[in-house]
Amino acid sequence: MKYLITILFLTISTAFLAQEYNTKKGFIAEGYDVVAYFKSEAKEGNKKFTTIYDGVKFKFSSQENLEIFKKSPKKYIPAYGGYCAYAIGAKAKKVSVDPETFEIRGGKLYLFYNSWGTNTLELWQKEGAAKLQQKADENWLKIIKEKQ
What is the pTM (predicted TM-score) of this model? Predict the structure, then answer.
């Protein structure tokens, strides 16, 4: 119950704070299709299928996915603005991601760093995703507040 109250508080609190996004390469998820992730695919978007939501650009692999996004954009926005979920949870640090390293958990998209022999998705799972997710939610709220 305490966990649910914490999540509810964080969700409501972050709704009133300005979001911060990782827009490496000019797009969320480095130009990968955020809708495709929910179909278990990491697909690069196409410049023909782009939109702007909340002041940032999104790229999609098809017109169909663009239309799906437009109907419910908040569902597809990566957690923690598209920064590495593990780094936010473990260290409260904004770290870039490998857009092909991702997880859908509880209907939410999480992206991870995966380079130089370090796959933070594996660390996230090994160290306890639920615990890290809760800590990342708390850390993300602090990061957003610091930005203001």
Answer: 0.87
